[in-house]
């Protein structure tokens, strides 16, 4: 269960809230590293341990934020508040909290989060393409579109990514299954020579890596730089799995 911030007032929580309010006024002057440091501790205070899936391969900013938050592990709420306040003091040595507080509550996401946030442009349902539905992870809509037979299942977008690349990148296992059932090219390569298996491994979606391998994905296909899916992950489980399958494919 998430360790959400206690609404009851305490000296530390009051100072923390004042620090959050102050960041709203100095955020434009802070470095990316400072913002990431504060973001992670703000999330730890209000949510607790990182509880979201690692963002996809192309969400670079999202992955930085996720890594910063995830690195805190089970850090206690009080420690996260203390480190946040200390971080604000280091960023602005002239700042001092007011005695007695009277700080105002900011929105849940907070100024640091909103300063760093990245959201994809909203697209209404009627204007969505098959790629939009795929990225969104709407397996039901994808099944309908694929069953109609008017979708080129192996089409690639301007970045050279196929629908299967995107489903693996976003971790949408149900969509991956739909695409494989409709005979998507499992070893299709993007403009950098990377297969869907590269994407699933990079983003550390173990169940999707297993699904692709079970569906005859080839783990021995290198990208344009000679890197195999095995080379693109830090996950011990995925490395072991790919090592086993690569050995099988070479026998």
From TrEMBL:
<dbReference type="InterPro" id="IPR036770">
    <property type="entry name" value="Ankyrin_rpt-contain_sf"/>
</dbReference>
<dbReference type="InterPro" id="IPR002110">
    <property type="entry name" value="Ankyrin_rpt"/>
</dbReference>
<dbReference type="GO" id="GO:0000062">
    <property type="term" value="F:fatty-acyl-CoA binding"/>
</dbReference>
<dbReference type="InterPro" id="IPR035984">
    <property type="entry name" value="Acyl-CoA-binding_sf"/>
</dbReference>
<dbReference type="InterPro" id="IPR000582">
    <property type="entry name" value="Acyl-CoA-binding_protein"/>
</dbReference>
<dbReference type="Pfam" id="PF00887">
    <property type="entry name" value="ACBP"/>
</dbReference>
<keyword id="KW-0446">Lipid-binding</keyword>
<dbReference type="Pfam" id="PF12796">
    <property type="entry name" value="Ank_2"/>
</dbReference>
<feature type="domain" description="ACB">
    <location>
        <begin position="12"/>
        <end position="97"/>
    </location>
</feature>
<keyword id="KW-0040">ANK repeat</keyword>
<feature type="repeat" description="ANK">
    <location>
        <begin position="192"/>
        <end position="224"/>
    </location>
</feature>
<protein>
    <recommendedName>
        <fullName>Acyl-CoA-binding domain-containing protein 6</fullName>
    </recommendedName>
</protein>
<dbReference type="InterPro" id="IPR014352">
    <property type="entry name" value="FERM/acyl-CoA-bd_prot_sf"/>
</dbReference>
<feature type="repeat" description="ANK">
    <location>
        <begin position="159"/>
        <end position="191"/>
    </location>
</feature>
<keyword id="KW-0677">Repeat</keyword>
């Amino acid at each position: 269960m998430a360790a959400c911030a206690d609404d009851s007032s305490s000296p530390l929580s009051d100072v923390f809230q004042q620090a959050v309010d102050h960041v709203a006024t100095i955020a434009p002057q802070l470095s990316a590293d400072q913002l990431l440091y504060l973001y992670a501790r703000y999330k730890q205070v209000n949510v607790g341990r990182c509880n979201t899936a690692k963002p996809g391969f192309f969400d670079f900013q999202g992955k930085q934020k996720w890594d910063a938050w995830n690195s805190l592990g089970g850090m206690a709420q009080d420690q996260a508040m203390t480190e946040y306040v200390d971080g604000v003091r280091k960023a602005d040595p002239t700042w001092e909290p007011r005695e007695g507080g009277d700080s105002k509550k900011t929105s849940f996401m907070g100024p640091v989060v909103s300063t760093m946030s990245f959201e994809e442009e909203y697209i209404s349902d009627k204007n969505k393409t098959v790629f939009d539905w795929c990225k969104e992870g709407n397996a039901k809509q994808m099944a309908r579109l694929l069953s109609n037979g008017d979708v080129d299942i192996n089409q690639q977008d301007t970045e050279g990514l196929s629908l299967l690349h995107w489903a693996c990148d976003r971790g949408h296992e149900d969509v991956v299954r739909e695409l494989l059932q409709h005979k998507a090219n499992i070893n299709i390569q993007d403009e950098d020579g990377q297969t869907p298996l590269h994407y699933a491994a990079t983003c550390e979606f173990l169940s999707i890596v297993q699904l692709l391998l079970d569906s005859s994905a080839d783990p021995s296909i290198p990208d344009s730089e000679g890197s195999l899916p095995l080379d693109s992950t830090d996950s011990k489980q995925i490395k072991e799995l790919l090592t086993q399958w690569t050995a099988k494919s070479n026998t």
